[in-house]
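We both want to read discrete structure tokens more fluently, so let's practise on a single case. Once you have written the record down, we can walk along the chain together.
***
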Amino acid sequence: MSAMPAGARRGALLFIFVVVVLDMLAFGIIIPVLPKLVEQFLGGNTVSAARVYGLFGMAWAAMQFVFSPLLGALSDRFGRRPLILLSCFGLGIDFIFMALAPTLSWLFVGRIVSGMTASSFSMASAYIADVTPPEKRAGAYGLLGAGFGIGFIFGPALGGVLGHSDPRLPFVVAGTLAVLNALYGYFVLPESLPRERRLPRLNWARANPVGALRLLRSHPELSGLATVYFLFQFAHYVLPSTAILYSSYRYGWDARALGLMMAATGACSIVVQAVLVRPTVARLGERRTLLVGLSFAVLGFAGFGLAPSGAWFLAAVPVFALAGLVNPGLQALMTARVGRDEQGQLQGANASLMGIAGLFAPGAFTQVFAYFISPAALHWPGAPMLLAAALTAVAAVLVGAAARAAPVVTDSAG
């Protein structure tokens, strides 16, 4: 079956773009303040906050690992729209719950619920695969990444300003935005998966993490591409798990400065995703685009870790922003290798890989950070960033074997 007409596809992509912008705006608002709120509950102890915040990230990722395959399989059976709406509404309620959390334990429960419901970005990726032909997917994923970046321009900046006086206020605003996003989607978001292309019944063997990951071994080259995806996602966790504590500790940045730094990161990301992805893929192809993105990710991570001052850290931001070429190229390569009725399962499997990375990466990076700022160790606070650079370099080496030319798959085998 062919993709939807160009005009209808542009309208559908606009809808999903707005949904992603609003969702990422809600996520972005809490990023500058959640680590500081944890630190506040712990009496201002940065070392303890780094360790506990790592556990928060691991719990969130564990929920993603368990629930993302289920949500992906449900979307293959019932369509993308209801799952996107469920995710947005669930996040809204959860953010408000976290705003009211009286103790660190309650905040932890809220983070668990957030991991269970945070699937809108995965569902948006499956949505794009539904409505876009394979040769146009990298550009469409670039648009999705631009929406991600827009949310991160205004979200962290707003969160930093709001959280400067009250670290709980950004959670209230984020919850409100997420609920409004669900209402917006309810009235304007069309379904992307027609009934005739849905699975006739829910296959529970595909709706669990093991079954979802099995898909990555069932198609040629998917396992290699999945390894690249896993390593990059593992490395990328260094930013949400340690960047706030790292830059606050090393450069003395407050919540406002942290929010503005993340806004600058989002601005650079938008330029890459909205302006550079399409021409780069058209000129270099998806595989070389992926390699270029990974190379700049290595340089960016190394720049963050070696930056002797806040100014040097900011200088590395536009370099790292070119890592935005990674996901569009990688998603285009992966979605072209599975059938149309497996796109939700693929995104669920990818989310499970991210969940596995998230189970270990936040703890690993925060423990490395805590160790290298402790009195007993060599003082080397940039060590987590350099570890991320090394992992990304390994991923770049693996691309050569993982992304050989392969025929595009238009329908699943069974």
